[in-house]
Amino acid sequence: MNCINNDCIAVGVSSVNLSDRLISGRPYGGLAILYKKELAHTVKVLETDDPRLLAIEIEQDNHGSLVILNVYLPYDTPSNYDEYMYYLDKIKSFINACDSPLVYVIGDFNANLSNSSCFGNELVQFCQSNSLSLRDREICSGGMYTYVSDSHGSTSWLDHCVCTESGRESVTSVKVLHNYVGSDHLPILCTLNKQITPGSAVPNTNVHKWERLSDDTICKYQRLVPTLLSEIVMPTETLSCSDAQCDNPVHREGIASLYDNIIATLNKAIDICIPKGSVMTNCMVPGWNDYVKHKHSQARDAYLMWRNCSKPRHGYEFEQMQATRAQFKYALRQCVANEEQIKSDNLASALGNKDMCSFWKDVKHISKNRCSVVNTVGGCTGEENVADMWRIHFNSLLNSVTQTSQKSVVMAAIRNVTFSADMNINAQSLNNIIQQLDVGKAAGPDGLPAEALQLAGLLILSTKFKQR
Length: 468
Ligand SMILES: [Zn+2]
Prior knowledge:
By secondary structure, the protein is of the alpha+beta class. The chain is 43% helix and 16% strand. It has three domains: 8-192, Endonuclease/exonuclease/phosphatase (Deoxyribonuclease I, Chain A, 4-Layer Sandwich); 206-279 and 418-467, no CATH class; 288-337, no CATH class. It has a six-stranded mixed β-sheet. The protein has a two-stranded antiparallel sheet with strand order 1-2. The structure holds zinc ion.
């Protein structure tokens, strides 16, 4: 789910065990909440321990927090009545247990409000007796619907936004997005006028694309690096100093600024030469463009047409809507099913050929998309706080030795090092080490990825710097 949108973090629950080959009965799907990465420092996932309820708490600046509970209630049938009442009760105790007075319960209530249905009436009564606002009913007109039955073309108003009295005014609009066609439910958009300050999120778009560089690009980079490097002034005096324990501030400063200049120059060359692109996670359904895209747009057009003709229950428009939607769903299902098939076939053949290397590579690839991004580590939420937590952790770990009796011995040993000819480091051996660096990894604190050093390699090491 974290691949759905690169700017978002997803949390979700599912009651369906996808590892079972056979799914019996009528399983209910799952719930998900996606939130923008820059809000990660404000979001906390609340424990509900129930596949029909998923909740997050969002911290607002100086205004306490607000809670969003996503629900998926049992569908309207007499045999589900007890379970339905149990869930209404559970929602009530959830709201009561919240520290925040601002609670928004949004999702598929399976309570039809467009004509008097059993669960619909129960929901209305539930809201009245608990002083909750059925906000979509207050805002929207009676003609609203959020569900179109695939088989009869009947419409129902099943998805709702229920909120506490304190949260009522902040829900300024509730709309059905008729332009999206994906399932028999239509998306609803609830707008809340609440102030939440976004934090920083690491943008993962527009990064340099090091893989599959063209020869031209490599050539351009390798020509530019020495040209730019030759502009750097060599601190001759500093480099001629042979005192291994030198603490002349001018010399130290000279070395530091030489390093900074080289790094800045390489980064400049990268910016000029290496193309950028967004990081695309492999999230598209394979075959979407070939098999599904066209059918999806047909289904959407037919739906809008049917809606414009005031939703007939039979006749050409209805049949078109029904047929195109079935075709779209079939195509999508085929693609998803084949994807699993292809992956499974690859795994099986790798295992059969005892090719453990590619077997585990595939396993890693398949399982990669399923692990969620960790938002909270050891009680710290948000990238900065988590990083800070680790900094403090390792700081205390590395300074945990209190015994200092050996310190003087170590310092003396360092001080007495004498440099000999065989301790010289030459450009070739440095270059060998650079060429052995792993590629495709994140850049270090200087922002230089291994690829940048490997392509520049000996060019950096053999540059003739400017003399002052
Ligand atoms: Zn010196």
